[in-house]
Amino acid sequence: SNPPSSSAAYSGVTSRAAAPSAPQIRAESLDREALKAARLKAKEERIRAKHEEFASRQREEATKREAKLEAQDRLAEELDHWAYTEQGQPKDIRTLLSNMDDVLWPNSGWKAVSAGELMVNTGAVKKTYRKAIILCHPDRHQSAPADQQYRADRIFNALNEAFKRQ
């Protein structure tokens, strides 16, 4: 008989393919599952944070709206008296500009202009109007208190209406 060609025949070891073994779990698949779970958890956390941010922003906007409505209730009469005559007609631009310091908020930086100067010098009306519009433009007062926002908006609109009628 022929001598065995390998030492495996002597040791009694059979080939690996013949012996059934437990399913091999690869380290890569565990890492993949862990990474997938971490990614999904991070995504859910971002979504939750965005929802909280949105809800917070909604509450903040509702609070601002309420504050503006309260400011309107308190200030509407004062600003109507400034902007309109007793008969309900809009006042002249010169009158509004000369009396702006009566309705502006404290520390607005407005320098009062006399009605006489506005009557004599027509160029002064346009110059003063532009300064007033820059000061009272609603976009400049987005982060201001509600009273100041309401005043700025009403003054801005009254000045624009009066200047168009000029």
From TrEMBL:
Keywords: Coiled coil. One of its GO terms (biological process) is clathrin coat disassembly. Residues 32-72 form a coiled coil. GO terms for cellular component: cytoplasm; vesicle. InterPro entries: DnaJ_domain (IPR001623), J_dom_sf (IPR036869). Residues 1-14 have a biased composition (Polar residues). GO terms for molecular function: clathrin binding. The keyword Coiled coil applies. The keyword Magnesium does not apply. Residues 1-30 are annotated as: Disordered. This is J domain-containing protein.
